[in-house]
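Forwarding the complex inputs:
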Amino acid sequence: MNFSLFLLAVFDGIAYAALVFMVALGLTLIFGVLRILNVAHGSLYAIGAYVTASVGAAIFAAGFAPFLAFPLMLIAAALIGVVLGGPIEYLLLRRIYHRPEVLQLLVTFAVFMILEDVQRQIWGTQPYFEATALQLLGNVQVLGVYYTVYQLIFLPLVALTVLIGLRLFLRRALAGKLIMAVTEDREAAQAIGINADRVFFLTFVVGAALAALGGALASPTTSVLPGIGADMIVLSFAVVATAGLGQIEGAAVAALLIGLGRSFAVYLMPELQVLVPYLIMLSVLLIRPEGLFGRPGARKI
Amino acid sequence: MLARYVIPALLILIVPLLPFLAPWLKVVLIIALAKGIAVLGVTTLLRAGQVSFGHALFFAIAAYASAFLARSAVGGEFFVMLLLGTFAAGLSGLLVGLFVVRYRGIFFGMLNLAFSMIFWSILEKFYYLTGGADGIHVRRPTVLGISLARAEFETFLFYFAFLLALLLGWVALRFLNSPIGHLFQTVKTNETRLQYLGISPRRTLLVGYVFSAGLCGVGGVLLATVQGIVTPDYAWWIRSGEMVFIAVLGGAGSVAGAFVGALAYELVRTYAAAFAADIWQMVLGAFLLVIILFAPGGMIGIYDTLMRRLFRNGGSARDRDAESEAAYRPAVEGKKP
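Prediction (whole assembly, two chains):
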């Protein structure tokens, strides 16, 4: 492996980590607040990618300006968060917060099964590919290696912005503080007049929108086809579990770790590409069952 | 009250007659029994309060093990394939189990899913060994050295699967009623108490896990031999989801429910899936939601309620709801951290 291949692997890893991070962030945020692991998260990612790719292809064919690709991603993500995430929380999850964990898992799994077929009904099984955003930003030369600006600079920048933005939102904004309060102790928060239902709703919509944004951002870099949702939920769970459930900054580190591990595997041992993320997760969990940054919870007797 | 037991007994007696009444049902019934045995494994784990989204892993391992054996110089002898497949599933259950029994709930479910996805990608990527997405053709095995024609083999397989299902159902009930089985179920109801008794919950869960993996293995071998081909689909998450679905449909944690659910599911799938092939997952998902939210006891739960209502000696409606809900609930439920 020479130096330029090494650089390529690093860049691939960073670009990939930025995408996985967005999805994992939504997953870990929802878990942190609602204490529910949303198995349907991968479907929201896939639908985000599908909407962006298909709508993008349609409006560029109609002659709209290519730079619209970027606002389109944001709009698609927000729309999916509200239109899909909203009803899922309001109609389903709200009924099961007090129910056992196994049952909550089964409910989100059922939603996942439904959404996978919804995708196939709407977009069929043909792959979609729409790379206007990628081509628009062009390439950049770094240490003798050419790479797309979109993947090397834009994606990590978006991921960092979202990470810092979310942190500031949770620490400084009133809505963020309410979320933190409900996460800390739901009953106490309700006792001082916080509307926990609304906080849960808001969190789920934001988390769902993050998954869709991940999909929207991924769509120019890869073809969108059935099955990416299932892959993504397992992968983002690997990231979240490696970091520790509910750890926001930890998810960024774990995403980078897994992204780099995966891209080096692509260059060194292509057969192991799919395995490496899980191997990383399993080896971390063997030594630290609560994840890299998680704290072991106190047991109630 | 007698009727409550007469109906199940009649059902058990009718099933072996079905191939005479409706010969075209034979293969469907074999598939249903194979899946029922596999679902029994998932059901067993539900008794310990754990749901696995990856038990298709053991199903696939056993199916591939028997396919490799049939392809090798040893050749396909049904009973050897069954034993080897079940052993392979049990062994991998032990290896995977050593890791996953450290976890409960979300982690348990998702780590199982991760393992099955890993195996699925191995099956797809190492195509020079596994035939990739095309899978491996499984030639019809001999039975005790006798090679049977297709129709006879299917008849044999049906009755064998039927007896095996009865036997394994009984074994599962015996297991759950044995001392270790009670400890196993205590993982769900009160794991801390188990530790106070000086018993390792992990080891207890591991015993049940290996048992459930072995059951999935038996189902996998049966399905591989009746279908004559194994593909990576055997390990795909949809297959695991299907098992969980059947377990919940039949009645979460109910041994009889596993088979009732599998029979109902397979019959509906064979005839209805043709009309709804494209939205099959959607139908399953929607149905799963309805069962979980409105009839958590599944088909067995509905049957019990019906019988109790008919003979008016059951508890109040509230009791029954609490009972079916208890299928999922740990007895001691602290406030979530």
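Chain A has one domain: 21-226+245-250.
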